[in-house]
Every structure is written in C-alpha cells, then in structure tokens.
Design brief:
Radius of gyration: 16 Å
Largest sheet: 5 strands, mixed
Order of helices and strands: HHEHEEHHEE
Shape: globular
Strand content: 5-15%
Number of helices: 5
Number of strands: 5
Structural class: alpha+beta
Oligomer: single chain
C-alpha cells in the first residue's frame, strides 16, 4: 500500500511488510541499539509508520533504473553472470547499502561496521562518501556485529558470514578485487 498517499516510492521493507506482517523481522538482536537505523526518516511528514531496520538492501537494485543508468533489466536474475557475487542484503548501519568503501582496501564500511550508529562520532574510521579506515582493529572491536564480521545474502539465494576485513567490494575500474559486487560498477558483467 501507499501509506498516507504521499506519492513517495515505498522502501524495500515497506514492500515486504504486507507479506511478512511482522515489523520486528527487520530488527537484529545483535544490533547496537534499537534506534540504530530508522527506516523512514520523517514518518510524521509522510504519514507512514516507522520501522527499525538493521539491514541494508543493495541500492543498485533497490533504486533501479536511477542507480543503473536506465537499466530496468537489473531486476532480472537471468541478467547476472555472477549472481553468487552480487550482494542483495547485508548487516548494515543504513537501510540502503551503497558502495562507499574504504578507498585503499575496498572494505564496505557500512557492512563491516554494521553496529556503528550514524550520528555518533566513529572510532577507527572516518565518515563520508569515501570513508577511510584509520584503525581496523579498533573499528572491528567496537562495531562488528557478529564475532568480528557481518552476514551477507546474495542474489543467488545463498548467505555467508564475512570477517570485517573481508567485506571487500569488487569494483571494475577501481583497485579492489573483493568477493562482493554492490553498486560501484555494472553487476551484470
């Protein structure tokens, strides 16, 4: 449904809610705190209920064709040559999982440090569109959600735990050759 008839597109968790009928499924028991990520930033203005969301959905798929340069077919699983590498959902400190990795390592900061609470000053990394990891060990000890790592579900249906240092992206044109494709390049290559 379109709560409040706002004309705004529904987020992924709002689209799933009529099937799940359970708002708590978006919360994760190991998350740092319940206010970590509020799914709708301005529920009072849109008239839509708020959700606590501790997972991020691949923005390249969620916001296609905007993020895919007009390619609506990015939603078609048959288009992916490597669906086992395309990250779909992950432990994340935001609901929209974008690339924004550490420039030198390609580590997906949003996933590796899923228990950081946006708005709080980070320790071990800097904020920004290109966050910089300044102390990986400290960031992992403070913000890794699951024993020093994060869970990632892929487009082919499998899920896997990755140590924070291995939450690295594969980005054509960038110096990273990690195991996860998200939103920094064509995912159908």
């Amino acid at each position: 449904g379109n709560w409040g008839n706002t004309g705004l597109a529904l987020q992924w968790f709002e689209q799933l809610q009529p099937y799940s009928k359970n708002n708590d499924m978006y919360k994760y028991p190991s998350a740092a705190n319940d206010s970590q990520c509020m799914g709708n930033c301005y529920p009072g203005l849109t008239g839509r209920p708020n959700f606590i969301v501790h997972h991020g959905y691949n923005i390249q798929i969620q916001e296609s064709p905007f993020r895919n340069w007009g390619q609506n077919n990015v939603w078609q699983l048959a288009r992916y040559q490597r669906p086992a590498e395309v990250g779909l959902f992950a432990d994340c400190f935001v609901k929209r999982w974008v690339s924004a990795p550490d420039p030198s390592s390609g580590i997906s900061v949003q996933v590796a440090f899923a228990n950081w609470v946006p708005g709080n000053p980070p320790q071990g990394f800097t904020c920004g569109c290109w966050p910089v990891i300044t102390d990986l060990g400290r960031a992992v000890s403070l913000y890794a959600r699951h024993n020093g790592g994060s869970n990632i579900a892929f487009a082919d249906g499998h899920a896997k735990w990755f140590a924070a240092a291995n939450c690295r992206l594969h980005c054509p044109g960038y110096p990273w050759n990690g195991p996860i494709r998200v939103s920094c390049g064509a995912m159908v290559e």
